[in-house]
């Protein structure tokens, strides 16, 4: 568990917990000079940060964004919600943290604010995204901001190329498209493509980086085998799918070692994006927002290279999301300003603008918008179907530790430090301990 402190009581200086019923949610003159936002330094967050000068122009309030790497962001958020008063008015919250924050009452509950809002409508958000991050045990704590479904991305220009497909079938006796249908077939295809191209184009670029990166990606393969990691009630059922986990891990290791570039066993999403963006990779399983950057790079580095997002092999990608929340230990004036900013960021105009500038959709209305879909049809036209068929990353307390520890065991197997069976058994034990 993250280990967060409970909601802090109010003090003489006006800091401390505030009830949402105390807030006048109608936009108006704000009684603060600045709003401070804590975020991980990744593309979707940075897009909104760059757009925030529009909020400043409209409300006369300066918006300061502070961004860190993932682990630093989580640590800073945990420390700040446990302080007498948070230094941040708005925090970006990952799926993994929601249960811990909720049980600690570290965030302002948002249900009554949503009920009074003309902007935020829970029914407009993709149901799986809303369920993944917005609420916990009957209370809404955050508003989905962007989703990080780990779909499979394929070089569409190669996947649909008749000459490339004919060469593949001639050499391996298999239809190229069949390699996208199951986890084992995908592993075979990635190895075959690397062999067929002499390593000029690797069959896959995956993230072997220890911890959550490895586990997030591996989950799509494990689920594609029929496995479940943590069920919808937060129960660790991983051990019930030991054989599926072993098979998925063996395929994952084979893809990285035999179908991927040298050194990718320690890669994260930046290295994967760079490799595929140069035109050196046929496929990836990655956080879908990074396919935007890959396509931008492919447009510069290849003649007609394009990545299209599909289901993961076996058809069950991992679905996660980031959201915007308000620390409970704020003054009424600061909480009012924070909610005003969150509503502004979640208006249709701002959500659409953010997607057109490189962000990812989380709402039905933007996915129904022709301009949004046409801005990146290879990624957005089938996003709803992809997310609907996926499984949500667990938001229950202990989920971050469970995913991190299992990812460490997977990486140990990848590096040859443990057998696959021993790594899975250790992972099962670690997950059960984390979710107690």
Report on this structure.
By secondary structure, the chain is α/β, with parallel strands linked by helices. The chain has two domains: 21-149 and 320-388, 3-Layer(aba) Sandwich (D-Maltodextrin-Binding Protein, domain 2); 152-316 and 398-420, Periplasmic binding protein-like II (D-Maltodextrin-Binding Protein, domain 2, 3-Layer(aba) Sandwich), CATH 3.40.190. The chain is 46% helix and 11% strand. It is built from 21 helices and twelve strands. It has helices at residues 43-51, 53-59, 70-81, 98-103, 111-115, 127-133, 156-159, 162-172, 183-196, 212-224, 242-259, 269-277, 290-301, 332-345, 348-356, 364-367, 370-375, 377-380, 383-388, 399-414, 420-434, and strands at 34-40, 62-68, 90-94, 135-136, 139-140, 143-147, 152-155, 283-285, 307-310, 318-319, 321-325, 391-392. The strands form four sheets. The chain has a five-stranded mixed β-sheet. It has a three-stranded antiparallel β-sheet with strand order 8-7-9. It has a two-stranded antiparallel sheet with strand order 4-5. Helix 11 crosses helix 21 (420-434), helix 12 packs parallel to helix 13 and helix 20 (399-414) runs antiparallel to helix 21 (420-434). The longest helix is centred in the middle third of the chain and has 18 residues, at 242-259. The protein is globular, with a radius of gyration of 22 Å. The relative contact order is 0.18. Mean pLDDT is 91; it is low at 1-17.
């Amino acid at each position: 568990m993250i280990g967060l402190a409970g909601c802090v009581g109010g003090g003489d200086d006006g800091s401390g917990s505030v009830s949402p019923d105390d807030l006048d949610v109608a936009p108006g003159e704000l009684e603060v000079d600045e709003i401070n936002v804590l975020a991980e330094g990744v593309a979707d967050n940075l897009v909104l940060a760059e757009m925030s000068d529009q909020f400043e122009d409209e409300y006369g309030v300066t918006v300061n964004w502070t961004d860190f790497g993932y682990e630093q962001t989580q640590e800073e958020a945990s420390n700040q919600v446990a302080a007498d008063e948070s230094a941040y008015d708005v925090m970006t919250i990952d799926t993994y943290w929601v249960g811990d924050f909720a049980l600690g009452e570290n965030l302002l509950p948002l249900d009554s604010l949503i009920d009074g809002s003309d902007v935020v409508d829970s029914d407009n958000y993709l149901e799986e995204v809303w369920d993944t991050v917005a609420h916990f045990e009957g209370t809404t704590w955050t508003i989905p901001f962007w989703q990080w479904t780990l779909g499979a991305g394929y070089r569409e220009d190669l996947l649909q190329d008749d000459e490339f497909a004919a060469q593949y079938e001639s050499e391996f006796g298999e239809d190229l498209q069949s390699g996208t249908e199951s986890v084992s077939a995908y592993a075979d295809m990635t190895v075959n493509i690397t062999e067929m191209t002499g390593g000029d184009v690797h069959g896959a670029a995956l993230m072997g980086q220890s911890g959550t990166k490895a586990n997030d990606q591996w989950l799509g393969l494990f689920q594609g085998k029929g496995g479940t990691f943590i069920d919808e009630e937060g129960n660790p059922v991983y051990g019930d799918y030991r054989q599926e986990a072993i098979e998925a891990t063996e395929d994952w290791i084979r893809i990285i070692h035999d179908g991927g570039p040298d050194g990718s066993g320690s890669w994260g999403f930046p290295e994967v994006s760079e490799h595929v963006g140069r035109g050196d990779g046929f496929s990836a399983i990655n956080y879908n927002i990074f396919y935007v950057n890959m396509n931008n790079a492919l447009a510069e580095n290849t003649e007609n290279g394009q990545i299209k997002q599909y289901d993961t092999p076996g058809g069950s990608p991992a679905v996660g999301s980031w959201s915007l929340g308000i620390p409970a230990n704020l003054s009424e004036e600061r909480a009012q300003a924070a909610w005003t900013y969150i509503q502004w960021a979640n208006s249709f105009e701002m959500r659409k603008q953010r997607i057109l500038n490189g962000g990812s959709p989380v709402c039905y209305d933007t996915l129904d918008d022709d301009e949004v879909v046409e801005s990146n049809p290879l990624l957005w036209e089938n996003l709803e179907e992809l997310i609907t068929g996926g499984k949500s990353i667990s938001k229950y307390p202990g989920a971050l530790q469970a995913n991190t520890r299992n990812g460490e065991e997977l990486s140990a197997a990848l590096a040859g430090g443990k057998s696959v069976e021993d790594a899975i058994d250790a992972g099962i034990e670690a997950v059960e301990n984390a979710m107690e």
